[in-house]
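On clarity, I found the account of how folds are encoded harder to follow than it need be. What matters is that the chain and its backbone geometry are given together, residue for residue. The format is easy to grasp once an entry is in front of the reader. For illustration, here is how one protein appears when written out as sequence plus structure tokens.
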Amino acid sequence: MLVYSAAGGVGLSVIDLATIIGAKVIGVASAAKHDFLRRRGVQGLIDSRAKDMVDRVKQLTDARGVDLVLDARGGRSWRASYDCLAPTGRLAVFGLATAVGGGRWLGTARALFGVPWLRFNPLRLMNDNRGVFGVNVGHLWDQHDMIRNWMSQILAWQAQGKITPVVDRSFAFAEAAAAHRHIEGRGNVG
């Protein structure tokens, strides 16, 4: 699987879950975080600033592509993510981080302009033997049994030491703005 922002909180959680199920991970992160990710078990690494994402993934997978891409960046990255998929691969979209920056409307417009709308139509998906699905956990809060089952399993794995959260740094509540700048500046791990 290909995981964007692999050194972030969600990315590290995905790496732990991938290890549990025996999946191989290609992580996308800034080069300064690659050694940390190798120690976490990531098999392939790509610099987040790489312009040749698809070529790099193809090199790392012997031209096959990946079975799953987890992409919270959105916009133009969804095009590259889709192109990284192997036959019957799936692209999971769960955020639109590229909309951040440039002001509320400009960032959103830039992100939406980059979405490959024509690639995500049913006929194209069928002919390409690929799929795209979205996740918004904020819209699942009324699914109590499903969430409870997920959390029970995650907590059991955490108790067994299979999931090890990373806390990069703590901030006082009064320093919330500084915490956001730290994350937005890509200074965090975890």
